[in-house]
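FAQ: What does the model actually see?

It sees only this:
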Amino acid sequence: MSARMRQIEQWLRDELKIKYDALLPASADASFRRYFRIFTKSYPGHTSLIIMDAPPDKEDSRPFVAINIVLDSIGVNVPEILELNLDHGFMLLEDFGKRQLLSELNSDNVDSHYSDALNALALLQSQSPRESDLIPDYSLQKLKDEMELFRDWLLARHYKVELDDYDAEIITAAFDFLAQEAYAQPKVLVHRDYHSRNLMVLEEDSPGIIDFQDAVIGPVSYDVVSLLRDCYIEWPPEQVEQWVIDYFARPEISQITASANHETVIRWFDLMGVQRHLKASGIFARLFYRDGKAGYLKDIPRTLNYIAEVISKYEDLEAFNELFLQKITPCYIKDHEKIDWSARIKESQGK
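And it is asked to produce this:
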């Protein structure tokens, strides 16, 4: 048993006096946080509990606590923080169970589940503060920096794409354009990972929302595109567009957007999605090479396909679209058809 695991057990058994048999892995995370589940009869009102382990030298748990308080205060269903030790990075949380939305979705129930998810998002966007000293701004520089993950980790490291100065200028210009377009949107509280792996299906007040600690004040379309153009599951474009139009037509959202028309909200949604998917594809590659997490590699083609579908529609991205078709699309098609992933994983772990 590692020293960290001994610390967790000591906190649970000695300080909190909780009796349980074993710490069971609860979920994977694309960060240094880990989650465990315990079953117990010694914590009143709960038969199972979640332990969040966020080492203080790698993860700051204070934003999780702050955002949890904000969301809970407006009626968004987030897990109750039952016990907290910020010095060690431990939290004891209400258990939302194992029914991740991703594993529940199918073509028959998606409208119902997405209705619940969009209702919760509308509450979050319409009732949360749109300015805050506690919640950081999704700055123009942050939006640009996130897209650089695509250039550094996906293109250079993963696909080994060689870019000349002209190519680099095209990419930089595209990043600048996308960041400016996103930053100009109306601002709301943004979860930043509002997708099917962070929404838990519950019997009452579904969904339960998790993994919100990176929330910012940012573009109104960000969480909408996270959900409806999810990196982990895909739906027909016509269906997605109708969901988008219906969402932005809600009275409480129209108040935020000054009743923006259909063309405007689709443009917001499309271009915000390109920014997010550039970032996500870079993160998926970084998780593999830096952290040894190979599970996200299979999601890269879907994520890049979203980008390809959108950038072909916008004149401002014409040069980027041509570059994408010439140098990037062939890489991910070839890569995921032919690469021996077991060898790539061993190669990554050896570095």
